[in-house]
Specification:
Helix content is 19%, strand content 48%. The protein has helices spanning 2-26, 33-36; strands spanning 37-45, 48-55, 59-62, 67-70, 75-81, 86-90, 95-100, 103-112, 117-123, 125-127, 132-133, 137-143. The strands form three sheets. A five-stranded antiparallel sheet has the order 6-7-3-10-11, with no helix packed on it. Keywords: Signal. This is Thiol:disulfide interchange protein. Residues 1-26 form the signal peptide.
């Protein structure tokens, strides 16, 4: 009797494990953050750096989750220009969020002295299909001076 019960429990456990494995395999594979949100930076003029985010299909980058700072108090972020965004209730966060898909160009205006500075950009997004949000992603860019005094 004990052997039959043990075999039964093993078969139930195996069936449950198989069902779990099937459900895990059915979930789409999530990409790594660097694959989902690719970002590059270029100086547009003496006071502006443009960051271009390329967003993988099925993912969103949140408009209100951008932040920018420099590593040098002599050069500060004077402002950030964001284009219009899409808007939708996000079940993963539980509120209406403004977001970008495909790509977005963000212009960061700098003030202060003209010198090489490290611009630190932070952004956050999610996998829209499965409702999984990524931790904030931070990238640093060395921004060379572009002639003349900024400010």
């Amino acid at each position: 009797m004990k052997t039959q019960r043990r075999e039964f429990l093993h078969s139930v456990a195996a069936a449950c494990l198989a069902a779990f494995c099937v459900s895990v395999q059915a979930e789409p594979d999530l990409l790594q953050p660097d694959e989902v949100f690719r970002v590059s930076a270029r100086r547009v003029d003496a006071r502006v750096v443009e960051l271009e985010y390329i967003i993988a299909p099925g993912y969103r980058l949140y408009r209100d989750r951008f932040s920018f700072k420099t590593d040098n108090p002599a050069v500060t972020v004077a402002g950030v220009d964001l284009p219009p965004s899409l808007e939708k209730f996000d079940k993963a966060i539980g509120q209406t969020m403004r977001y970008y898909i495909d790509r977005v160009a963000v212009r960061v205006r700098l003030a202060g002295s003209s010198q090489t500075v490290k611009l630190v950009a932070t952004a956050q997004g999610c996998a829209a299909i499965v409702g999984v949000c990524y931790a904030p992603i931070t990238k640093a860019f060395s921004v060379p001076p572009m002639g003349g005094k900024q400010g």
